[in-house]
């Protein structure tokens, strides 16, 4: 049995009708949908590779677009979180430093994933026909599957704790759900 009293209390701090909150949810959901649709379209049509003159140039351009969209998503997340009330019972040093530690672990997973995969491995190069010589099994892939997704989720979780933000926690759940759906779709 799940005690929903804590969740109900937490949600009492979140205005899900706030425009900034809605924009943050939409940007969170949009990003993995966008890159999966575009990558599959490229794989079937090679249209981006033709437009940009090569698969590598097309992959780099898509990667830059994804990075910009991720910056927009993070901005929307932060603004939505800042516009909602803090949970005063969490606005303490221990919560802040716990969030900082969780964000640091998430950052470690994201950066080490990027370093292990490289730019084209990170940004869907396989859909452009840019294949790695072999599957990456070194850290962080030997610790968990999809470390970039879960590292990113941990960063948002940590950021939410650092700001004692119930809205941030709810948005982090949206990030986790979006990535779970993306993993199912990509698999």
From TrEMBL:
UniProt enzyme class: transferase
Gene Ontology MF terms in the entry: phosphatidyl-N-methylethanolamine N-methyltransferase activity; phosphatidylethanolamine N-methyltransferase activity
Domain of life: Eukaryota
Compartments (UniProt record): Endoplasmic reticulum membrane
UniProt keyword Membrane, yes or no: yes
Catalytic activity: 1,2-di-(9Z,12Z,15Z-octadecatrienoyl)-sn-glycero-3-phospho-N-methylethanolamine + S-adenosyl-L-methionine = 1,2-di-(9Z,12Z,15Z-octadecatrienoyl)-sn-glycero-3-phospho-N,N-dimethylethanolamine + S-adenosyl-L-homocysteine + H(+); 1-hexadecanoyl-2-(4Z,7Z,10Z,13Z,16Z,19Z-docosahexaenoyl)-sn-glycero-3-phospho-N-methylethanolamine + S-adenosyl-L-methionine = 1-hexadecanoyl-2-(4Z,7Z,10Z,13Z,16Z,19Z-docosahexaenoyl)-sn-glycero-3-phospho-N,N-dimethylethanolamine + S-adenosyl-L-homocysteine + H(+); 1,2-di-(9Z-octadecenoyl)-sn-glycero-3-phospho-N-methylethanolamine + S-adenosyl-L-methionine = 1,2-di-(9Z-octadecenoyl)-sn-glycero-3-phospho-N,N-dimethylethanolamine + S-adenosyl-L-homocysteine + H(+); 1,2-di-(9Z,12Z-octadecadienoyl)-sn-glycero-3-phospho-N-methylethanolamine + S-adenosyl-L-methionine = 1,2-di-(9Z,12Z-octadecadienoyl)-sn-glycero-3-phospho-N,N-dimethylethanolamine + S-adenosyl-L-homocysteine + H(+)
A cellular component annotation (GO) from this entry: endoplasmic reticulum membrane
Transmembrane segments: 20-37, 94-117, 167-185
Entry's EC annotation: 2.1.1.17, 2.1.1.71
PROSITE patterns reported in the protein's UniProt record: SAM_PEMT_PEM2
GO annotation, biological process: methylation; phosphatidylcholine biosynthetic process
Protein's UniProt name: Phosphatidylethanolamine N-methyltransferase
Organism lineage: Eukaryota, Metazoa, Chordata, Craniata, Vertebrata
């Amino acid at each position: 049995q799940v005690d929903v009293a804590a969740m109900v209390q937490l949600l009492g701090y979140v205005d899900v009708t706030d425009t900034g909150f809605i924009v943050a949810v939409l940007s969170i959901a949009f990003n993995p949908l966008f890159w999966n649709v575009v990558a599959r379209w490229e794989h079937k049509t090679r249209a981006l590779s033709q437009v940009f003159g090569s698969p590598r140039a097309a992959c780099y351009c898509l990667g830059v677009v994804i990075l910009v969209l991720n910056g927009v998503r993070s901005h929307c997340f932060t603004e939505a979180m800042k516009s909602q009330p803090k949970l005063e019972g969490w606005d303490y040093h221990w919560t802040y430093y716990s969030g900082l530690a969780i964000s640091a672990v998430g950052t470690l997973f994201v950066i080490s994933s990027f370093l292990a995969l490289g730019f084209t491995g990170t940004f869907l190069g396989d859909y452009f026909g840019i294949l790695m010589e072999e599957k990456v099994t070194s850290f962080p892939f030997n610790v968990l599957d999809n470390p970039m997704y879960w590292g990113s989720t941990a960063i948002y979780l940590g950021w939410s704790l650092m700001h004692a933000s119930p809205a941030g926690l709810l948005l982090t759940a949206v990030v986790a759900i979006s990535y779970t759906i993306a993993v199912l779709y990509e698999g």
